[in-house]
Amino acid sequence: MKHIIRIQNLHFEFSRDKPVLKDISLSVPKGSIFGFLGANGAGKSTTMKMLIGSIPDEHNAIQIFDQELSALYPEGFTRIGSLIDTAAFYEHLSGWDNLLVISRLRNLPPSECERVLYLVGLWESRNMKTKRYSLGMKQRLAIAITLLGKPDLLILDEPVNGLDPNGMLEIRELLIRLNREEGVTIFISSHLLQEIEKMITHLAIISNGEIRFAGSIKDLNERYRYNRIRIGLNDAAAFINEIPGSYSPKMLDETGIEITAASREDVIALVKQLVLKEAGIFEIKTSAGLEEWFMEITKN
C-alpha cells in the first residue's frame, strides 16, 4: 500500500522540557480519509502546521510523497491543499473574485475557479459578496481554494468546527465525494468524534502529544468490537440476573441489557446460556462507537 504521508519519531517542543509532540509515528495511505483525532491541546494543530512547513521539521521526521519537507517545498504546495485555522477572505469581493485573485497568483486559468465552485456547490452563489455568505458557505469556499490546481492531498484542521448540523453534513458529503470521485487523499483533524466517524477510513488518536492508536477503522473495530455489547431481549429484567457478574451486565431499558465482553467466545458462550434459558433474543450489536473507544484509549 502506498502512503502519502509518513511521520517517524516526530518530536517537538516550544520550550525546553515541555514537549508538545512525543515521538509521533503514523502513515497515511493514498486514497484514504485519515482522521487525526484528539482533544483541544493534544498536539493536532502543531503536527499539521509542521506538515505544511509553517513550523520547521528540523529532524526530517516527516515525508510527503516520499520526500522530506526540505526537498518538497515550495514546489510541493502545488500538490497539497491546506486549511489551517480560519480562512481569510476579501469580504467586499464575491466568491468568484476571491478565487480569481488566488488563481492569478498561482498562474491558474479562470476555468479552475469554475471547476472548484461546481465541486463545492457554490457556482450559483459565485457573484454574491462573501460577507453575505453563511458560515457553511464560507467553509465550502475555503475548501474550494484548497482545491485549486487539483491537489493530490488535502490537509484540513477542524473544517467543521463551529458549523451547525446542516453545515457539518454539507462539508462531510463534500469531502466524501472529493475522496471517492476525485481520488483526493484527505488528512483531517477534529475533536468532534461523532461527526468525523461518519467519513474516515483510517485514523490516529493523539493524547498529550502521544499517539495512542493508529490504523484503519477495521483495525479499531477488531480491537474494541467486544468491549460493550447490547443484547435486545423481550423481557430484559427477567434475565439480567442470569448473566454472570464478570460480564458487568447493565439494564439499558426494558428490552436492552449492555454487557462487557473480552472476546467473541465470551459473546457466544453468553448467548448460548441465554438461549438455553429460553430468553427471547431479538438483537445483538455493539453499543460502543468511536467516542467510547476514544475515551477508552485515552483514559490512562
Which overall shape is indicated by the principal axes computed on the Cα atoms? globular
Structural class: alpha/beta
Low-confidence stretches: none
DSSP strand tally: 14
What is the alpha-carbon Rg in Å?
A: 23 Å
What percentage of the residues does DSSP assign to strands (E)? 25-35%
Give a short account of the largest sheet.
6 strands, mixed
CATH architectural name of the largest domain: 3-Layer(aba) Sandwich
Main sheet strand line-up:
6-7-8-3-9-10
Structural domain count: 2
Mean pLDDT: 88
CATH class (first level) name of the largest domain? Alpha Beta
Number of distinct helices: 11
Describe this structure in words.
The protein has helices at residues 44-51, 69-72, 95-105, 110-120, 135-147, 165-182, 193-196, 217-224, 236-239, 264-276, 290-298, and strands at 3-15, 18-29, 33-37, 62-64, 67-68, 80-83, 153-157, 185-190, 202-207, 210-216, 228-233, 250-253, 256-260, 281-286. With 300 residues, it is α/β, with parallel strands linked by helices. Helix 3 (95-105) packs across helix 4 (110-120), helix 4 packs across helix 5 (135-147) and helix 5 (135-147) packs parallel to helix 6. The two termini are 32 Å apart. The strands form 3 sheets. A 6-stranded mixed β-sheet has the order 6-7-8-3-9-10, with helices on both faces. Strands 2-1-4-5 form a 4-stranded antiparallel β-sheet. A 4-stranded antiparallel β-sheet has the order 12-13-11-14. It has 2 domains: 3-222, Rossmann fold (3-Layer(aba) Sandwich); 225-298, Alpha-Beta Plaits. The protein is 34% helix and 28% strand. The protein is built from 11 helices and 14 strands.
